[in-house]
């Protein structure tokens, strides 16, 4: 059964999205992906989003997010396959420098850093972005540049 996950599109005033840079411990491949993670039993999407934002970036007082996408996805990381149902929330935030507050031991081993990306940068980069169509999805969000 797929695990429920929340993914955060953290957009600053310049419409840049914050992504996490990570390295797969098994394959050594590197990728960029949005903040987010599993929703715990009894936890709302908004509560999970606020918890994940704080744990992974140090952000407190996360504004309420607007649902923008959902998808069912299977991915592999560290030699294991995961089935997830992702609910994507868009959050407008002030630009900040991420400082993780409570990474798991696993995240500490895999996270290399953070970067704010424009949708145009996502569309033209040769780096691996998850999901691969993120730049196009961001360009299509109503009210975004």
Automatic annotation (TrEMBL):
<dbReference type="GO" id="GO:0016787">
    <property type="term" value="F:hydrolase activity"/>
</dbReference>
<dbReference type="InterPro" id="IPR020476">
    <property type="entry name" value="Nudix_hydrolase"/>
</dbReference>
<comment type="similarity">
    <text>Belongs to the Nudix hydrolase family.</text>
</comment>
<protein>
    <submittedName>
        <fullName>NUDIX domain-containing protein</fullName>
    </submittedName>
</protein>
<feature type="domain" description="Nudix hydrolase">
    <location>
        <begin position="1"/>
        <end position="140"/>
    </location>
</feature>
<keyword id="KW-0378">Hydrolase</keyword>
<dbReference type="InterPro" id="IPR020084">
    <property type="entry name" value="NUDIX_hydrolase_CS"/>
</dbReference>
<dbReference type="InterPro" id="IPR000086">
    <property type="entry name" value="NUDIX_hydrolase_dom"/>
</dbReference>
<keyword id="KW-0460">Magnesium</keyword>
<dbReference type="Pfam" id="PF00293">
    <property type="entry name" value="NUDIX"/>
</dbReference>
<dbReference type="InterPro" id="IPR015797">
    <property type="entry name" value="NUDIX_hydrolase-like_dom_sf"/>
</dbReference>
